[in-house]
Amino acid sequence: MKVIGHDQQKKFLSALVKSGNIPHALIFSGPEKIGKKTIALEFVKSIFCQNKNLTNNICDNCYPCRAINDLVFPDLAYITSEEDGKEIKIDQIWNLTEKLSLKSYDNYYKIGIIDQAHLMNLYAQNALLKTLEEPKGKTVLILITAHPEMLLPTIRSRAQNLKFGAVAKQDIEKYLISLGASEETAKEITILSFGQIGRAIDFYQNPELKKEFLKNLDEIEALCCAEFSDRFNYAKKIVDDAETTEALMQKMEIWERFFRREMLIKIFSKKSKFPARSVTDLKNIVKSIEKLKYLISATNVNKRLALENFLLNL
Asked: Which residues fall within 8 angstroms of residue 210, CB to CB, at 6 or more apart?
């Protein structure tokens, strides 16, 4: 694994390890596919690596490093959704808590990672809250999420939030070229990835994913000038097709990043796919998408009606 970007976050985590003053709970929040899980695992390795040097660099070859890479290290408990986009259940939290209660492999830290923590249902979150309220010994919980607003306020208040942003374009391009991509391909994929290094790697390794992504962009662009009936039909289709709320959220993430890009293009070059729309118009669209994401992820709103209302005002 290689961490691309996020230098400030890496420095902060390195300082925690050096000081030995690691919080009992951390939230790694930020957009999907920007490397949060990779950094979480690198952080865990920096705690357990048997050969790290004075600058805290890990060897990535000792038993703890290799076992952490494979998610089988005895002092690491990792959980995520059992099915893509489905909820994380209370049984999984109970199993996590049980693993964390066992004696440490080397009388050191016990680390729990909950990937896509926003997928925990209410029962799972309440079960986790008990662990957060009564941390035992050197136990550290890391919650990785793109939607921290979906976590209970009581959970958020008991964990230190470390925010992650998009990866710089030059870092993504350079990494894609190191994988074998041509400069032209690297530039094209970097533009489409919107700073999401994981998405850029997926696009390079699986061109079909890039085609599907471009299809989503074409759809939202076409909807901006579509008849109202077409907008209603589209709202119905994507709600019917989406098996999970997470699938809808991913589509809206694409929309938000598309309009953010158009807004920046409008500001810096005055050339945009929407010449009749002002920067303020595009900014308001982004705000509407943010509100829509919140309603769908954190409330019991009727998803189809919420989407219809957004699309009608697009």
From this structure: 189, 192, 203
